[in-house]
Amino acid sequence: MRFNPVTLIIACLLLFSSPLAAQFRTAMRTANKQYDINAYNLAVQSYLSALERRPDDPEALGKLADCYRHLNMMEDAARYYAQAVRLRDVNKQHFLEFGEVLMALGRYDEAKQWFDTYARDVSAMVGRQYSQSCDFAKTQITAASGFNVRPELLNTPSADFGPSFVLSDQVVFSSARTDLAAPGSFSGKAGNSLLVATIGQDRFLAIPYLLRNGYQVDGGNAGPVSYSPDGAKVIFTRNNFVDGTRQIPSSGMQLALFEATVSASGEWTNVRPFPFNGSDYSTGYATYTPDGRGVYFASDRPDGFGGYDIYTSYLVGNSWSTPENLGPVVNSPGNELTPFFDGSSLYFASDWHYGLGGLDVFRSQQDNGRWTQIFHMGAAINSPRDDYGFVFNDARNLGYVVSNRTGGSGNEDVYRVTRSADNITLVIKNASDGAPLANAIVDFVECGEGAYQAGTDGLYTFQAMQGLNCNLVVRKDGYVSATVPLATLGSGDQKEITVNLTKINETYPGKVVDYATRIPLQGVVVRVLNRQTGTAMEAVTDVNGDYYVAMTPFTTYDFTIRNPGYQDIVFVLPVEDGRNRNMLGVIGMQTGVAGTSGINPGVTPTTPVTPVNPGTSGNNSVQAGYAIQLAALSKLDLSRYSSLNNLGQVYGVPAGNIYKVRLGVYGTRQEAEQALRGVKSKGYNDAFIVTEAGSSTTGNVPNTSPVSQPTTQPTTQPTSNYSYLVQLGAYSKPENFDQSKAASLGTIVSRPKGALTAMLVANIASLDQARIIQSRARAAGWVGAFIVQDQNGQLVKVE
User: How far apart are CA 767 and CA 773, in angstroms?
Assistant: First the structure.
């Protein structure tokens, strides 16, 4: 009998391939079961075993890559995704997942290609969203963020996450470390326990210890937690997190919320489920509001905008109100998690809004009770990996964020967050002799803080965080208070500011106004040099343009008066017997380039350099139009209304024994109504519009076009010779530019830039001032703002 050689070969192949095929199917069944229950570390081994039998199987390659993605092993994930996505029968969902992995590796150009492919083949909306996020990430990954982020020393190779402040000096967090595990806690690799750490003098967290709360969670672990501001209540999440697996919704996390009362000994009593838990959805990550009467939390309940959304609920009596979804500005088709509300801003994590990759931290602001804007928190707090669980204490300039970024100690780590700040020392002196003044009061009320006492040596040191733009007041009994303007870049600089306080009986008042409009100028620096002693002092004009200096009879002084956007004024003033307290008069400043002088040095003016006579500095006339009445006072003090300066000029109108405090004047009622909305948003709810017929006023002199108002309609060219500008953005449709929002930054101009229109802040006198405006612009949402210089009509970026 003769055998056909071909038939023999085929028979042999079938004989050997049958066991291989069976082994492949067995390995895949095991792997898929493990994958379906989110046991990714076990599924990896099973898929690798299957691929030994069939190396080009698209399902095995794709799911193996996805296991590595959930285990935060992004290099391995990218290697297997790259093989899977090139096979014809691959699940196209892997296009999106491959793009996410490439983003996590910082390979944004490659990620964008796969997101574009997903947009073409699966979902245009989702693909384009993440494709554009790659463009955003490329511009932000190296941008300054205004925060310093450092890993905490207590991090371990296990998962450390969920930091939360407790009272004033402690932090509670969760950890999967086993050396401090609670007795009888949830067994296996999934376990995590609550730990407590004290904030040390070096501002790092000290060695943690186990939280003794006397409560054992059934079927999971407790964390994260949030204590009420008084420490009497706690709300906590029951989690099923697995150490080594990313804490993201697709990993199969199941969450539920519980409340408890905290006893004097710290034990949790009367533990009860949150009334809005669900059996078919998760609810977790709750944090109390600052008043302890409300909570913000995340849930994937079915009435949301996508996956997990953020909700809020408030105590009404002893019951929680129906959860309210925060709406589509905050929530998205993706997932929003880990909310934290500090009383004014909401911080949360999202995997949908434009970010650097994975979960990123964002901040949202309210306007009339509605969430209207979100801001990315920058590349220090965020990374290409998962960043979430952000909390921050403004008063301490201290917070925390959780991240599984590269370079950490293990899985999830806790990072300490501080705002970038300048270290400022006030040197408070007696203006007449330069001696230190002990125990003066430094008042930060306008900056949102309290009042503090300087030392007996006349020194007061503090940290001024980036973006701070306000005035502090230094005062002492028997002396004229001094106003110190603060505008900080948060670059970590050491600054020393000398504050000279003048004795009331040695005070000589002066006033500075705009020469053309007679409007008082705030923030003008008046520098006075005593020729005999060589000592110098500086004064800064207040909201009424007033300043005070100390001068000694029969002494000669050199005056230098400076204000951005105006010509310097330099003159010499000999003081004779000192009896004429009004010798400084009212000085008018002309617009122009700083550094040019309206009066030659060394020349003593025979009459005040002013369009207003010294005796008339308190009373002026006001034009007719519309104004906003703010209050009626028996004693006029316009400084308390300085927060309204960006809306118009504040002035007083005498009416019998009182003064009517008004803001204006506006040429049309529509302008007044727009300003009234701004006034009420600042808390002046009783303000109303009046018709200004023209009258005698006290204080600032308004007109229908106050020069202190920034230009809100952009011009085609800058209106001054200043060379520095700050570019806010370039627009294909300049009508979409928010001019009202930009007005607070300064004079807005536009320049053509190819097919786009660049919108810029102009009339900036110095690079330092430009940097301050750039910082303010970024804080206001123009995160890509940069400084340019006008060189012969060409805008050149300043590095």
Answer: 10
Domain pair 619-699 / 724-797, same fold: yes
CA dihedral 90, 96, 101, 106 (to 10 degrees): 130
d(CA 162, CA 164): 6
**In this model, does residue 708 exceed pLDDT 50?**
no
| Residue given tokens 């008082």 in the structure block | 520
Name the percent of the chain lying above pLDDT 70: 86
Between CA 448 and CA 423 the distance in angstroms is 18
Rounded (10°) angle between helices 74-84 and 93-104: 150
CA distance between the termini of the chain: 89
Interatomic CA distance for residues 611 and 613, integer angstroms: 7
Res. 600: pLDDT tops 80: no
Closest CA to 208 of 249, 163, 168, 251: 163
CB neighbours of residue 671 within 10 Å: 16
Joined tokens for residue 424: 């400022």
The DSSP string of 321-337 is PPPEE--TTT--SS-EE
CA dihedral 550, 552, 556, 558 (to 10 degrees): -10
Residue 641's pLDDT band (boundaries 50, 70, 90)? Answer: confident
Q: What is the dihedral of CA 653, 695, 629, 485, to 10 degrees?
A: -60
Check if the beta carbon of residue 354 is closer than 8 Å to that of residue 132.
yes
**pLDDT tens digits along 106-133:** 999 999 999 999 999 999 999 999 999 9
Predicted pLDDT at 92: 95
- What is the rounded CA–CA span in Å between residue 660 and residue 520? 19
Q: Which residue has the tokens 């919320």?
A: 257
Q: How far apart are CA 360 and CA 739, in angstroms?
A: 29
The answer, as to whether pTM is greater than 0.85, is no
b/e map of 191-207 (b: 16 or more CB within 10 Å)?
A: bbbbbbbebeeeeebbe
The CATH code belonging to domain 421-616 is 2.60.40.1120
Architecture of the structural domain at 724-797? 2-Layer Sandwich (3.30)
User: 147-419 in CATH: which number?
Assistant: 2.120.10.30
Q: Where are the domains of the chain?
A: 147-419, 421-616, 619-699, 724-797
How confident is the model at residue 747, as a pLDDT?
75
Residue 676 Cα to chain centre, angstroms: 27
Q: In what side-by-side order are the strands of the sheet with 147-151?
A: 147-151, 413-419, 398-403, 387-393
CATH classification of 619-699 is 3.30.70.1070, yes or no? yes
Task: Tell me which residue of 70, 68, 72 sits closest to 82, measured CA to CA.
Answer: 68
